[in-house]
Amino acid sequence: MSAAPATMPAPILRQNLPALFAPRPADAHKGTCGTVAVVGGGAGMAGAVLLAARAALKTGAGKVLAGFAQASCPLACDPLQPELMLRDAASLFQAGLPVDAWVAGCGLGTDAQARATLDALFARRGDAPLVLDADGLNLLAGGALPAWGTGPVILTPHPAEAARLLGTDTRAVQADRPAAARALASRHGAWVVLKGAGTLVCRPDGLCLRNITGNAGLATAGTGDVLAGMLGSLVAQGIALDQAVPGAVWLHGAAADALVAARIGPIGLTAGELADAARQLRNGHG
Predict the structure, then answer these.
(1) How do residues 13-67 score in pLDDT, each as one tens digit?
(2) N or C: which terminus of the chain has fewer CB atoms within 10 Å of its end residue's CB?
(3) DSSP 130-152
(4) Closest alpha carbon to 33 in 257, 228, 286, 282
(5) Which helix (H) or strand (E) holds 255?
(6) What are phi and psi of 64, to 5 degrees?
(7) Beta partners for 150?
(8) 61, 233 contact by CB (below 8 A)
(9) Are 109 and 69 a contacting pair, CB within 8 Å?
(10) Which percentage of the chain shows pLDDT scores above 90?
């Protein structure tokens, strides 16, 4: 095998992520473990928000709110995770609850209500970190969004979304993934998680890392929503971005690896199975 190119980003390694595995203080409570709010879930897509919110909860967030981009909340509670607090997005914003990190775009759609929902979120979030995923990225690419404020932002495109954001095509993105990630980070002053085989994590200053966990079991609907929820959760818990962003990406892939090692997948592995495996890893059980 030929030597790796000198410009290949360094790998994300577990030993460089000590904050993910640090024990919690004995006096920790839900208020000290971070509050995440997940906003998205337009008509027919409520499951995307639930996947992200469940992942945020099982990755360690103290409280998780979910706001659906619909006229009314589509369900009274999540029957699998009744701990989640569900509202329509407008009611969530009006409540003015303290939020440590926002996750937006999962199943959001791109219609007028979706745009209005993100406008309201940007006006509401202040300096709280924001993970912008899926249709949030498509709205951004279309120029439909106002300035998002001064707090840190994490963009999570797959190659096609990255191509739309850069005004190019997927082939060009895949031909030089580090360059694409750096271009997005520079253009938006944001962290970029360029998903795909060997997901890249790029800081706003252009430093890139490459993920080496994960497998083909992640090639199924909803795994990106789970990653977005994990990102919001680790950031909300107060883990520094230099560990929270690559840490979530590493953990997401490592959860898939643990499931395959347990003979769950890769064929037929589902997004909803990742959060439990990630919880096991954070607690040192895998």
Answers:
(1) 999 999 999 999 999 999 999 999 999 999 999 999 999 999 999 999 999 999 9
(2) N
(3) EEE-THHHHHHHTT------SS-
(4) 282
(5) helix 241-261
(6) -135, 125
(7) none
(8) yes
(9) yes
(10) 94
Under a CB-based contact definition with an 8 Å cutoff, are residues 36 and 101 in contact?
yes
Number of neighbours of residue 275 by Cβ within 10 angstroms: 25
Tokens, residue 83: 């701990």
**What are the two backbone dihedrals, phi and then psi, of residue 193, each rounded to the nearest 5 degrees?**
-115, 100
Q: DSSP string of 150-171?
A: SS-EEE---HHHHHHHHTS-HH
**What pLDDT sits at residue 2?**
37
Domains and CATH numbers, the chain: 30-282 (3.40.1190.20)
Give per-residue burial for 100-114: e unless 16+ CB within 10 Å, then b: bbbbbbbbbbbeebb
What local confidence, expressed as pLDDT, does residue 145 receive? Answer: 86
Q: Let me know: does 250 contact 229? Beta carbons within 8 Å.
A: no
CA separation for the pair 65, 128 (Å, rounded) = 15
